[in-house]
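FORM 12-B: Structure-to-Sequence Request
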């Protein structure tokens, strides 16, 4: 893909100040110790996104699911899954969350494998046009400027699947490389005509009258978000690896049983960092995600298709070995030792 980097400062409009608050948590606790497996304190270095894709992990932390497993954590909060992957490749995180294309590049560059999922998130990702723009549907993106974060999985899906499905190829539009947490401000100021973004940014843009969803990813890609681990971490800390998966299984069950409690926890988090939006906006954003740790039927075929396209594009050198990259052993062991009566609260 060819991107043009955004130039010039993003003015701090009222909504811009909200989004800058979220940007401020880009890396809260990197703790880049350089150790090969676990931090110097013995804590598990857990990376996740501050968008809604990472919120099942955040709620598991807040609800005590990891504490119940007697796990010590070093949380690493970043703005996107590809940044989590980069930390894992650099051996500065042990566990992380990211989508399929990012998993494949991580497996190609390092010993990263998936051990389960956070969930499927197609409904949380959308192409959003500026409310004042002439873009009413996908065909109207011809000749327009589209904000996409370079290297992101959602950018790969938009450019590789969604836009070609309506006859738009690269060169028919201009890609502008903007971090997801700055896109709404760029849309507000007319720097771009549309953005490819994830929740809660889309819900904020819609609720503020800044943008409108013209397509989400539901009809194009299930968008699984995986729980990735470094194989060396699994080999050295297998018991802890199983505990992590078990904690997330318990949290996913509680999320499904009482989603409003999860939404309240997420709302409190965003409020605590200055993301001052009504609870119903956060509920709208988070409810678009299907939280589950178990792999869905056909996940290997899905990942095979992704990997083949990535090989063609030169993003990875070869299709991963799914017998190891889609690890099922930890999930099976965690499931066998999880009881329905178990809870985090």
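FORM 12-B RESPONSE
SEQUENCE OUT:
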């Amino acid at each position: 893909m060819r991107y043009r980097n955004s130039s010039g400062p993003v003015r701090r409009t009222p909504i811009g100040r909200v989004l800058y608050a979220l940007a401020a948590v880009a890396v809260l606790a990197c703790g880049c110790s350089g150790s090969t497996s676990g931090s110097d304190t013995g804590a598990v270095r857990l990376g996740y996104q501050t968008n809604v894709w990472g919120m099942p992990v955040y709620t598991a932390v807040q609800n005590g699911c990891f504490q119940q497993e007697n796990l010590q954590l070093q949380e690493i909060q970043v703005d996107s899954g590809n940044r989590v992957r980069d930390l894992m490749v650099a051996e500065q995180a042990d566990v992380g969350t990211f989508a399929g294309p990012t998993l494949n590049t991580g497996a190609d560059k390092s010993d990263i494998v998936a051990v389960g999922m956070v969930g499927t998130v197609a409904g949380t990702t959308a192409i959003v046009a500026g409310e004042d723009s002439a873009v009413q549907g996908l065909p109207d993106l011809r000749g327009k400027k589209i904000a996409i974060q370079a290297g992101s999985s959602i950018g790969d899906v938009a450019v590789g699947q969604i836009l070609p499905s309506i006859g738009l190829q690269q060169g028919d539009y201009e890609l502008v490389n903007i971090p997801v947490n700055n896109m709404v401000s760029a849309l507000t100021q007319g720097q771009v005509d549309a953005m490819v973004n994830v929740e809660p940014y889309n819900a904020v843009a819609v609720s503020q009258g800044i943008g409108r969803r013209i397509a989400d990813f539901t009809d194009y890609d299930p968008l699984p978000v995986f729980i990735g681990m470094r194989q060396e971490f699994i080999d050295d800390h297998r018991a802890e690896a199983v505990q992590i998966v078990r904690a997330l299984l318990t949290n996913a069950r509680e999320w499904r049983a009482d989603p409003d409690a999860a939404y309240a926890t997420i709302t409190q988090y965003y409020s605590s960092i200055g993301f001052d939006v009504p609870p119903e906006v956060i509920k709208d954003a988070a409810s678009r995600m299907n939280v589950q740790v178990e792999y869905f039927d056909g996940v290997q075929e899905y990942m095979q298709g992704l990997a083949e396209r990535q090989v063609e594009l030169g993003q990875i050198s070869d299709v991963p070995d799914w017998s190891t990259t889609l690890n099922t052993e930890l999930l099976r062991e965690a499931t066998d030792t999880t009881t329905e009566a178990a809870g985090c609260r």
